Amino acid sequence: MSLSSKAAFNDSYELVRRLGSEMAERNASPAFIPSIVAATIARGYENRLNFRLLGSLAAFDAAALTAEMDRQLQGRYLYSDTLITRFRNSVKAIDHHFSSDRKELADDSLKITTRCNTILAYRNHPQPQMVDDFLRIAADERADLQLRTAAVQTLGWYDTSYRRHDIVSALSRITTPDAALQADITRAINRLKER
Predict the structure, then answer these.
(1) Which domains does the chain have, with CATH numbers?
(2) Is the pLDDT of residue 3 over 50?
(3) 143: pLDDT strictly greater than 50
(4) Of all helices (H) and strands (E), which one includes residue 127?
(5) What is the C-alpha R_g of the chain?
(6) CA dist 9 to 52, 153, 166, 191, Å?
(7) Cα–Cα dist 52/35, whole Å
(8) Which residues contact 125 (CB under 8 A, 6 or more apart)?
(9) More confident: 181 or 195
């Protein structure tokens, strides 16, 4: 993450601000939290930017977002708390979303395809909160091969995440007799190392 990434939130062009929010979501480094909260307070009235900012919140720790919002609001008087309420409601939904997905992944009574689809949905929005869950599934030799493959393939999409080095390290330690899964592991590692 660079200084220019954080500065994008205050750029004079709205498009740059929205793209900065998207890159913050894809990287998901906790260092972006103060910038996201500050942009929400200062520019949340911009509908398209606010939509993008609220969409990026799931990439970050809910407790850290709430604490940062509280910190930045200290001593401030707001004309309206509508944006802050919307922010807080979105943050509350984050934990529910992840716990729901974790329950689904742990539920062996569900069809494998349902569980795989839950994992594969994270390719479009790689969330660092799920990395450890996916690594655990990928390394679990008792887990269904299709589920393990979905986890490995999804982890390959974390190429802009601040956790990509952790993912490469963990995937490098996984060995499997299945040639197709091993090929997917190698492919994911190579993709993550390319950045």
Answers:
(1) 3-95 (no CATH), 107-193 (1.25.10)
(2) no
(3) yes
(4) none
(5) 18
(6) 11, 31, 27, 28
(7) 13
(8) 25, 58, 59
(9) 181
